[in-house]
Amino acid sequence: MPDRLTGIGVSPGLAGGPVYRMPDPVTLPAAAPVSDVAAERKRATAALTLVADDLTRRAEAADGAAGDVLRAQAMMAADPMLSSDVAARVEAGTDAPHAIDEVFEGHRAAFAAAGGVLAERVADLDDLRARAVAACLGVPPPGVPDPGEPFVLAAVDLSPADTAGLDPARVLALVTEQGGPTSHTAILARAAGIPAVVRCAGVTGVADGTRITVDGGNGAVEVDVTAEAVASAREAEVTRRAALSTVTGPGRTACGHRVALLANIGAAGDATGDAEGVGLFRTELMFLDRATAPSFDEQVSGYGEVFAAWPDMPVVVRTLDAGADKPLPFLTQPGEPNPALGVRGLRTARRAPQLLTDQLHAVAAAAHTASARVKVMAPMVSTVAEAVEFAEAARAAGVTEVGVMVEVPAAALQAARLLEVVDFLSIGTNDLSQYTFAADRMAGELADLLDPWQPALLELIAMCARAGTAAGKPVGVCGEAAADPRLAPVLVGLGVTSLSMSAAALAPVRAALAGHTLARCRELAEAALHGAPPP
Amino acid sequence: MIERTVQVGSPGGLHARPAALFVAAAAAAPVEVTIRTADKPAVPARSMLAVLALGARRGTEVTIAADGPEAEAVVDDLAALVAGDLEAETTDA
């Protein structure tokens, strides 16, 4: 009889297969006396060789940048100085795992002290150290397991580093004990189109290799199921995807009410699906990992590439959104007591107005030669005065369509007045949740507060949408809530005019809208405002 | 002792892939090679960790040195490698 676990479904889809658990972080056992120095030395160097060989193998299988990174890491593991230093420590009486740990610690300190790009490689060294110690102890290496067949990945929670190399062809579904609808796991899973369930208590207690099925829509996880159940989950998923792909064309409800379905992107090469334009172009990518801001010309050519990828379609450029979880050395200040409530988003322009002016001029210059319909919007706006100032700066730079994001309750409360000074609003539901409920986006324990079905959040969205209807101006949603096919009809029922999401989420949202009339969307919205649970 | 001082040519400095290519070439050389910067002492050029720890950026002057019968050719080759743009090279690996 299969066991049933339940969590929160955050990325729809059905999957079935063996489950494998993300290994625990490697911990060093207590130091042990060394009796046979030669054997201990062999144990240490064999561990380093194993790690280097494994990384080399993976480098050969990977291509491009990923392969280069792995190759560089393999060369660190194979460094002759590393093995001779480890050997010297073993000769002096330290056991192999501790010798490895101590030598890596020395290099780590040197890298961290050097700062700059070298400090960023500290994570690579820590990974190598953990792998080498694991090899020495004979325990599984840290990181995503590789059972040699497609599998469901179970974890307490997944960090960005854990998921960076996640291959959707191998990972059938993600199930975590912690995390929430706006956690990294959820966002990644939706972007990659992998079914995912978060806050599923007990999943990491399931033995590796046990067959399970996962429903990323309703959050149900069946444990110890038959091979037939796995096969039928997979068949149902194939059917589901086929059904999704039969609904094509621009977004519309069953009765033909148009809702623009747009893409969230960060660069020109990002997947476009069959989006009708870009609802959120995050410009941070060009600014991250640099010591100084990109030059005007660099920005013009970067934006131009993106605009060229979306001919004759709308592209909403969000101006630099730095601060809080996205620090920039030339702009943000470390050490703010409350970074999420600090100088972030548009507020950084108080400190460095020229950066914003330059960016707006670069956007206008790039738009000049493109057929895309370029608009700009500012992140983290909280007053009408801020919106006025931004709109004036944008129009002075030559951008004709200007909007602001609604991420702070103060902005939602002023939606009607904001629309007197700008052309559109775009609601960032992740931050709007965080600031409305005073609940950190990353706090998995508070997932219930961050649930986009919370009536208070929906009420704020409704206020913005009503203001938009009254002013005859568009109000879109570009947060994770827009990517939820069950919530999309509710948002449309509230009066939202466009939904912007990662490319993989477009098909399910398009299908969900096609399945509801506008009248039904309004009924669902009314019910949700009164606290009705998701259908 | 044969020495050559050159400026690092790769845009990202002697880091990641350029460092890997340089270290692999140094390890394949028939003589022991060292590399240093103006403010850091000489380290073995076949040590990836030591080469990375130099933190040499684009334009940083590095001095490559070796002893022995083939030192001149080895040092010349490695100096040319460092001075070039190693990120632009194609990989066949």
TrEMBL record, chain A:
Transmembrane segments: none
PROSITE patterns (alphabetical): PEP_ENZYMES_2, PEP_ENZYMES_PHOS_SITE
Residues that, per the record, bind Mg(2+): E407, D431
Subcellular location: Cytoplasm
Top EC class of this enzyme: transferase
Domain Phosphotransferase system enzyme I N-terminal: 6-121
GO CC annotation: cytoplasm
Pfam families: PEP-utilisers_N (PF05524), PEP-utilizers (PF00391), PEP-utilizers_C (PF02896)
Cofactor: Mg(2+)
Active site per UniProt: H184 (tele-phosphohistidine intermediate), C478 (proton donor)
Keywords: Cytoplasm, Kinase, Magnesium, Metal-binding, Phosphotransferase system, Pyruvate, Sugar transport, Transferase, Transport
Domain PEP-utilising enzyme mobile, residue spans: 149-219
GO aspect biological process, one term: phosphoenolpyruvate-dependent sugar phosphotransferase system
Enzyme Commission number(s) of this protein: 2.7.3.9
Catalytic activity: L-histidyl-[protein] + phosphoenolpyruvate = N(pros)-phospho-L-histidyl-[protein] + pyruvate
Residue ranges of every copy of the PEP-utilising enzyme C-terminal domain listed in the record: 249-515
Keyword check for Ubl conjugation: no
Family label: Belongs to the PEP-utilizing enzyme family.
PANTHER family listed in its UniProt record: PHOSPHOENOLPYRUVATE-PROTEIN PHOSPHOTRANSFERASE
Name of the protein described by the UniProt record: Phosphoenolpyruvate-protein phosphotransferase
From TrEMBL, chain B:
Biological source species: Stackebrandtia albiflava
PROSITE patterns: PTS_HPR_DOM (PS51350), PTS_HPR_HIS (PS00369)
Domain HPr, chain residue ranges per copy: 1-89
Subcellular location: Cytoplasm
Gene Ontology cellular-component annotations: cytoplasm
CDD domains linked to this entry: PTS-HPr_like (cd00367)
Pfam families (alphabetical): PTS-HPr
Name the UniProt record assigns to this protein: Phosphocarrier protein HPr
GO biological-process terms attached to the record: phosphoenolpyruvate-dependent sugar phosphotransferase system
